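Page 47, continued from p. 46.
Same chain as before, 322 aa.
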Amino acid sequence: MQSVITALLYHGIVIETGSAADVKEEFKMRKWKKAVSLMLTAAMALSFAACGGSASSAAGASSADGSSEAESTASSAAANENVASFTESDVAYVQDKGTLVVGMTDFAPMDYRDDSGEWIGFDADMAKAFAEYLGVEAEFLEINWDNKLMELDTKGVDAIWNGMTITDEVTNGASVSEPYCNNGQVVVVSADKAADYQDVESLSGLSFAVENGSAGAEQLDALGIPYVAKSTQADALMEVASGASDACVIDLLMAGAMIGEGTSYPDLTYTVQLNSEEYGVGFRKGSDLVDAFNTFWKEAYDDGTVMETATTYGVQESVIEK
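Result:
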């Protein structure tokens, strides 16, 4: 037992006197020092129990052994928990690999490609700024939106950042940032038919297209209206433009940027707004990237970066004040 304590003390001294190269190393050091302290406590408790055992009755010895075993188990569990908390740090994980992988779809004005193929948009630009804040590069990965939570869990992506509506499904499966934009789900139809579809009751006879797994799909499910599931909101919009479907449900922010006079779809308009909602960024459950994001966003809002970027893409009216 003495040798165990001596070894632990030796490693404790090495940790205490070693120099940290950067903040991350200091964080690691603090975690290991705490773990070593807990292990020392457990080892000393076992040692004292062994020394006092000969003076106790058989029943007392049994009780002491049980107490020491419980203390040792609890201390070991606490030490393991502390080590795990560092191991599971998403900030450290992202910084170690040097990239923040962002899961998204083609969804203007939040995420879309410019003429050179680069991902731009309000969300894409802010994701690049957040990655820079963390000291890494942003990497964008188009995903099946219906599988977004699985992509997070399996570390296929580090964040879901694509005008994501905060729903019960999302909050049950991920840790979500503070909301940053207001939004709603709207019904899009041909402009020449818009007068006939001004309330929910009028929608029942329409054929709909909607992005699979989206907030729009949830709204149609709640109304009991059948629909054709599409891979993206852009695909759902094209269904209406081509005449394959009578209507689609898309995000209000997308409708404002993509349909009506002066857009790619001048003959389409939106009528009924089905709900009001908010956007958030999704991270793995319990991820420390949530706090890092919330801090970053507040600073970016205060220094004008958020509103400047939002104005570039015409979504400034939807940004939530911080």
